[in-house]
């Protein structure tokens, strides 16, 4: 599979990391659903390979295929809640003890892509997502309101923009990149494209 290299951060401060997210599995055969994420050197950094959306659990891996985080939808959640678990060598039955975050829609109405993230045992959201995910125009803010990550359409040059299957993800320094990528994976599941097209600004 060919690689799509990310552009360098254009802010000039050299602080944020810029990743290229390709909504395509690293597996090279038809029918595979997933993500491939490349760093600024064009190296595969994260991957998610899923053969069917019917599979309830998703596993975010590093570029070499090592499991990092498991993502599971909450059963019967009107807010489309998903829960994130840290992967380990331990038996899968112990994962319920290692829940590290929950992510869900802010409202039961699916008119926007506003999402809240609660870290372990959190009462108030630690992160909030605003904007329109399917237009690749959303921001992730910390509890203090600081923008810690954002997505944008991938530009080859000033006049050529790639399809929305390929987009840029910019992450501020000091922020856990695998955690942000896990948020992006869940956003892809809970933010429905038909609604986003009609309702997002």
TrEMBL record:
Similarity remark: Belongs to the LOR family.
PANTHER family: EXPRESSED PROTEIN, PTHR31087
Protein name according to UniProt: Tubby C-terminal domain-containing protein
């Amino acid at each position: 599979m060919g690689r799509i290299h990310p552009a360098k951060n254009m802010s000039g401060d050299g602080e944020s990391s810029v990743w290229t997210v390709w909504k395509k599995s690293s597996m090279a055969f038809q029918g595979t659903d997933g993500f491939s994420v490349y760093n600024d050197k064009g190296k595969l950094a994260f991957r998610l390979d899923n053969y069917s959306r019917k599979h309830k659990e998703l596993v975010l891996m590093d570029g070499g295929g090592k499991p990092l985080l498991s993502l599971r939808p909450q059963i019967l959640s009107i807010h489309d809640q998903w829960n994130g678990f840290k992967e380990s060598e331990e038996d899968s039955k112990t994962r319920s003890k290692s829940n590290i975050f929950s992510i869900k829609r802010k409202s039961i109405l699916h008119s926007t892509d506003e999402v809240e993230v609660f870290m372990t045992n959190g009462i108030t959201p630690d992160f909030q997502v605003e904007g329109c995910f399917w237009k690749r125009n959303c921001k992730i803010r910390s509890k203090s309101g600081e923008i810690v990550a954002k997505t944008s359409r991938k530009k080859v040059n000033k006049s050529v923009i790639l399809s929305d299957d390929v987009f840029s993800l910019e992450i501020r320094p000091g922020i856990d990149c695998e955690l942000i990528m896990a948020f992006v994976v869940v956003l892809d599941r809970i933010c429905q494209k038909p609604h986003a097209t009609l309702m997002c600004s």
